[in-house]
Design brief:
The chain is of the alpha+beta class. The strands form 3 sheets. A 3-stranded antiparallel sheet has the order 1-3-2, covered by helices on one side. A hairpin with a 2-residue loop joins strand 2 and strand 3. The relative contact order is 0.13.
Length: about 270
């Protein structure tokens, strides 16, 4: 799921200096405290930047009804030097190589240009993944728009700004635990059927909002066919969540936590 910025054609990055030079002229969001962007709003908030994005930088249509009204959104920005995935990204980038060899070399060398390219790849990969999964009906936040390395996403939480808790933060009773497990199995089977693994799944990137399970944090989504370690990612994701549910007493469910990996491999036709 490489960024569309790196397609072959007239706009070719001949070397790292050229990439950095051209990158300086890309449209960017103004600072958070700039002018009318934040005028009259509480600290940390800003007005919409919808008019700064092109149709291809916006989420899948039809746009949700709540999007055309006043709404609260979550902003996620990728910074090459900070994002933790960049420290161990080689395993996820297998199967994502772009055609421009100079871009691949810059990424492999982790130069300044390479890190900028990686952060753009992560943002583009997550936006594309969320767009596809949302259109397929999977429980993920609706991706509103992408501008450079910033994503605006549906806010999962309450209207007063209280974010939904992560699965790891709640202590569900037996009935809710079983319901959440059923939702998770359905979501992961849908993901595997599309040929993907989350790639970094755990109780920390699953939200629970009013009894509904929502998958988040998907820049590292893995194409289980293109990536030679695809089956390993499916198995690892399964083991991570199965341990959490088993430790909280989940029992007498189908499939049992121990059988989740086999089910996902079968759905992805890797068994």
């Amino acid at each position: 799921m490489s960024s569309s910025q790196f397609r072959r054609g007239k706009r070719r990055f001949d070397d790292e200096s050229t990439f950095l030079k051209r990158d300086r002229h890309r449209r960017r969001l103004p600072p958070a405290d700039f002018g009318s962007e934040t005028f009259g709003l509480p600290e940390g908030d800003r007005w919409s930047t919808w008019d700064q994005s092109s149709p291809t930088e916006r989420g899948p249509q039809p746009h949700p009804d709540w999007l055309v009204r006043s709404c609260l959104l979550a902003a996620k920005r990728y910074r090459a030097a900070e994002h933790r995935m960049f420290q161990r990204d080689s395993e996820y980038l297998e199967g994502r190589r772009v055609r421009e060899s100079r871009v691949n070399r810059a990424i492999a060398a982790r130069s300044a240009a390479g890190r900028a390219m990686i952060s753009t790849q992560w943002a583009s990969a997550e936006f594309a993944a969320l767009s596809q999964l949302c259109a397929a009906g999977l429980p993920v936040p609706y991706p509103v728009q992408i501008l450079h390395t910033e994503l605006l996403l549906e806010f999962i939480g309450e209207p007063d700004g209280t974010a939904a808790p992560r699965l790891a933060e709640i202590r569900p009773a037996a009935a809710e635990l079983a319901s959440l497990w059923d939702q998770l199995v359905t979501a992961l089977c849908g993901l595997a059927r599309l040929g993907y693994a989350h790639g970094d799944l755990s109780a920390y990137n699953l939200l629970v909002h009013r009894g509904r399970l929502v998958m988040i944090d998907m820049p590292q989504i893995v194409d289980v066919i293109a990536n030679p370690r695809g089956a390993e990612f499916l198995t690892r994701d399964s083991a991570n969540v199965a341990r959490w549910f088993t430790a909280r007493g989940l029992s007498a469910v189908t499939p049992a936590p121990a059988g989740l990996a086999g089910l996902l491999l079968a759905e992805a036709r890797l068994s």
